[in-house]
Amino acid sequence: MAVSTTLLAILLLPILLTTTTHAADTPFLGFPSPWTSPSNNSDSSWAAAYAQAVAFVANLTLTEKVNLTTGTGWQADRCVGNTGGVPRLGFRGMCLMDGPVGVRYTDHNSVFPAGINVGATFSRRLMRLRGEALGAEFRGKGVDVMLGPVAGPLGRVPQGGRNWEGFSPDPYLAGVAMAETIRGIQSRGVVACAKHYILNEQEHYRGSVDVRIDDRTMHELYLWPFADAVRAGVGSVMCSYNRINGTYACENEWTTNHVLKNELGFPGFVVSDWAAQHTTLGSALGGLDMAMPGDSGPLPYRSWWGGALTEAVLKEEVPQWRLDDMAVRIMAAHFKVRAAADNYTFRPDINFSAWTNQSLGYLHPSSNNSLATVNEFVNVQSNHAALVREIGAKSIVLLKNAASLLPLRSPPSIAVIGSDAQDPPSGNPNACPDRGCPQGIGMGTTAMGYGSGTAEYPYLISPASALRAYAVSHNISFTNPPSSSNSNWDLPAAVDLARNASVAIVFASALAGEGYMTVDGNAGDRNNLSLWENGGALIRAVAGVNRNTVVVLHTPGPVLVKEMEGNPNVSAILWAGYPGQESGNALVDVLFGAVNPRGRSPFTWAETEADYGVGLALMDHVPVGEDPNNERRPTPVQRFEEGVFVDYRWFQTGRGRVVYPFGYGLSYSKFRYADLRVVRREDVPGKYPPAGGMTGPAPTYGVVERGDLTKYTPPAAFERISPYVYPWLNSSEGFVAGGGGGGGGNSSQFPAAATNGSAQPVLLASGAPGGNLGLYEVLYTITASIKNEGEVAGTEIPQLVSPRIARSHADNMSSWGGEDNPWGVLRGFDEVELEPEETKTVTFELTRRDVSNWNTTTQNWEITDREKFVFVGSNVRDIHLNASLPAPVGMKWRIG
Ligand code: BGC
């Protein structure tokens, strides 16, 4: 491992040195923290929810408001995150649960395919259905907030440990998936949480790394899917562990106040990642609204908020309007989703405990307090298994199918080889906590990654068991040794099996996960892009003796497949991602042709790690920077110098070798494209009216009485349980929190603007959730016809690529568009189901945002005057049709 890390560093060095460096033009605007108001958004469901929230918050005392903002402490209540409630008004605290593949730490739930599989479906329908099913399951357990979906990491580095929780390193695809998932979840009465905001692109140093990024890359790449999330009405956003341009994400006034709340007009609440909050005032003034898990701060409150926030408000270091805004945002998100779920007129009780499988347990486990029935074992799975299987099958990407070996047509015999095909040796797919152990040791087949993004399997259909069942019912001779003796290291045994079968199906996987666990020497991020557990050698050995070798990969992203792609005996390669509980059944559907493969790779497969152009920041090549927060440890600085050139955008520059491109995937059928038509909207000009004017002043609800502090201590008869976090002061005698409430400084350390509640100018690009409504106006409607010329029904995924800087129609992928724009980026896709000989028309809509760049000087989206084109094809490299985009109304192209 050490060798590959060092090698990577050496290989990357010249790349980093020659990469365009963007000017450090990031504006550090961001005070005061924007107060939400219905006037800065146009979505009527937010407006109604805001009114309800204001009515609710107007009745609250200071400590009741603080109670909504602060977690009660790790394991202090039954969920992974719990806020205080308002018992006086019968409002129980909120329950927050991971996410995103199913309800974590419970039972009788489903395990859905991972985000990366959902990305691979390129299907809005399946994205939405999965969101709805997830929402229904969280709702059924009494959860208020689902901690997902994920668009950060976006997937800058292919080794990133948590990329599989998200959808794709392409922001357009990720943005569509975010929006559909969020709409689905929230339609069932559960607040979705778009996480991790933002630039938490790797697990190494996630709690300290300082990401340096320019404003344009931020807008055009990493922010894009979060903008879609906000536009879709997401109720909450989780700020991440890392720093951005010197400041922690959870107190970063640029990313949170300026970009998210002001420019994107986010009306909901920002919740910290677990223990990602570092100060009382910095976080409050920097735009955080909810602190989780609540007890990660210093004494005397053991919380940065809770009593410390009450003190800070009483001392006027945090203005009352800021606290009121936190409470309104939290309650508005809550009321918005309750209203959205028409069928739900009540708020279900929490009916499980994340901390025990038993029915009896503590209501407050961290203090062993209040023994009660905590698990009711409510079955929330409904008929979701069918959807899990459908997404599993439709996310499988067929990378290679030489001589049309697939679909298999009743071969006399098949051998199933590899520990990744097997049932878990112990019989229990949940044997490893948070799935954090290698498959050979206890896990069997890989169908999810490890870390907090997991859920307990209700069952797991392994490929071996599904293939056995299929073979038995179809008279196919089947060999698969018992899992206990099926070691990837016993190559002679594998060769024996393979030699005697007409088709050898060999399985290999790679694990990735969250950095709090180290699996086989990998601390969350993968150490390399190799297959785990001798997978590469196993495939080589099997293919050495069987000409009909089918390779199945369960990986969180790319692995190095160049060798198998070139091996003539490897007839087929399928990437099945992390498919969830129906893994084996989904695979059988594709192998035997019940489902014609239609998944498309949501990332690029390169020849070597170095081809990706970026790598993990690891110990031996992290530039250690200055120490902005005066911590004892030096801060690792990670400069995103490649700008927008990640994944296929990078490969378009011709500087990396591709095996399978982004968007690639084969079918059992073939499709012909024709008749590209571009229609410009004559009523929509190229330039849109910027937002303007002023906000209202910050509203406050109720009056904070200072003087008599006994109001802010617990009622006389109240018995505190320790270590539960309360909103009360420790003493009515005076303030006890450290400077500014626990080492957080005092408000004089912030610009005066930070506490200024007067009316503020409205940003040009703002005006509605997701940004200025003009960004989403359709400028062009593009149509093409697609015909199924194969012999079987199939689904084609046409992809629209629209270059920012066009050169000529003859432009090809090996020549880069030049300047600092990618050659062309994904700006549309669809799923077109076609019977043999059938033709259908596909329609794409290009919005103003789709053809704009972020202008860092004007701080607005603008369509540049460079001539632009549009391409339609079956992936970003396989373009079948192209046309000019006429200049938008009121604009003229500069040609050449
Ligand atoms: C993860 C989050 C997760 C939280 C609660 C953190 O370590 O980064 O994604 O939601 O824990 O489990």
Automatic annotation (TrEMBL):
Its EC number(s): 3.2.1.21
Domain Fibronectin type III-like: 796-876
InterPro entries from the UniProt entry: Cellulose_deg_GH3, Fn3-like, GH, Glyco_hydro_3_AS, Glyco_hydro_3_C, Glyco_hydro_3_C_sf, Glyco_hydro_3_N, Glyco_hydro_3_N_sf
Gene3D superfamilies in alphabetical order: Glycoside hydrolase family 3 C-terminal domain (3.40.50.1700), Glycoside hydrolase, family 3, N-terminal domain (3.20.20.300), Immunoglobulins (2.60.40.10)
Pathway noted in the entry: Glycan metabolism; cellulose degradation
Catalytic EC class: hydrolase
Domain of life of the native organism: Eukaryota
Signal peptide residue numbers: 1-23
PANTHER family recorded: BETA-GLUCOSIDASE, BETA-GLUCOSIDASE A-RELATED
Similarity remark: Belongs to the glycosyl hydrolase 3 family.
Protein name (database record): beta-glucosidase
Source species: Chaetomium strumarium
